[in-house]
Amino acid sequence: MDDRRLRDEITPEPVYRRRHAIMRAAGVLPMIAMAGLVGCGAESAPVTSTPETPRETGASADAGVVPTPGYQEILTPFESVTSYNNFYEFSTDKEGVAKLAQGFKTSPWTLSVGGLVDKPQTFTVEDLDLRFNPEERVYRLRCVEGWSMVIPWQGFPISRILDAVVPKGDAKFLKFETVKRPDEMPGMRGFSPYSWPYVEGLTLDEARNPLATLATGLYGKPLLAQNGSPVRLVVPWKYGFKSIKSIVKIELVAQQPTSLWMAAAPSEYGFFANVNPEVSHPRWSQATERRIGETRRRPTLYLNGYTAAVGSLYAGMDLNKNY
Ligand SMILES: Nc1nc2c(c(=O)[nH]1)N[C@H]1C(S)=C(S)[C@@H](COP(=O)(O)O)O[C@H]1N2
Ligand SMILES: [Mo]
Fold it and tell me: Per mean pLDDT, which of 67-71, 231-235, 293-297 is the most reliable?
């Protein structure tokens, strides 16, 4: 796997070919597929500020990763993405998760979407891939602990699922849940300070943003267990803990859901958890981050560099109060 290429110079050939294959499968002209996919420009450049490209084109809503000025943006190697993980159901030891997750049964699998919707539905993973056209989406992942990666996901905007289930007028939030299987997930057995299952939430407006992604693959392969197989959330402008793994249920609800992290440490982990270098975690600064594979820390960008795409969601809101 040829990972260590500059993302902001040119789309690397292997990535191009993978995209090409995906786009061809979606019946898209390569010319269209390439347009808008290569990241470029400074932080102020519009990344995904345009409305989502019409579904028929199959083109990505993502225009790549906007480089941190003065720093390179390269894909984090597949080996790192799949061997350094947070998945507390298995272990709190990041390097131990992959091995412990090997016995996790991710097939068959269904994702049920219900609650305040007109058309509740249960999808198999095959349904998701066939109906919602995953495309390559390269995003930064910034963990609240202060490390980050750049990951080429295969995913689709959650809005496509929302269009299928049709939220009712009183639906205001999405509540996501991970599977709860202590027999397969050793981190859940015995004493645990967490109230399982892992739960996360988004506002309906956040979930409708084109960057809010459900991923079923990375680096052109189906997700491995340690990365949240078979389907996980990717919300690149929020701290990584919002990107809940191995989802079995999405409920549309009227009240703000309480996430596992809000329940465990409310003074440390809020509902919004938008990446913000100005607001320190109570126990450490969020001003900088260590990109996995690098030694020098780099500045963390407001909304993880995705202000052009998602900043309007928070107009009029004091993000300094929404850790
Ligand atoms: N179900 C579940 N989802 C989870 C977690 C978890 O412990 N359980 N950890 C979160 C955290 S803290 C991060 S940083 C990302 C890590 O994703 P990765 O291992 O694919 O890089 O997953 C998030 N999703
Ligand atoms: Mo994290």
Answer: 231-235
Ligand 2 geometric centre to CA of 206 (Å): 19
Q: Whose CA is nearest to atom 6 of ligand 1?
A: 87
Each residue's pLDDT tens digit, 110-158: 999 999 999 999 999 999 999 999 999 999 999 999 999 999 999 999 9
Q: Which ligand is nearest to the CA of 197?
A: 1
Query: How far apart (Å, rounded) are the C-alpha atoms in residues 158 and 225?
Result: 21
Residue identified by tokens 């963990």 is 143
Contact status, residue 108 vs residue 124, Cβ threshold 8 Å: yes
List, chain by chain if needed, residues with CB within 6 Å of any ligand 1 atom. 85-89, 141, 143, 178, 198, 227-228, 240-241, 243-246
- Nearest Cα to 3, choosing from 293, 299, 305, 224? 293
Q: Which of 84, 86, 223 to mutate to test the pocket of ligand 1 (most atoms within 8 A of CB)?
A: 86
Query: What is this structure's pTM?
Result: 0.83
What digits encode the pLDDT tens for the residues 74-102? 999 999 999 999 999 999 999 999 999 99
CATH class of 3-321: alpha beta
Q: Which residues contact 22 (CB under 8 A, 6 or more apart)?
A: 58, 134, 135, 136, 154
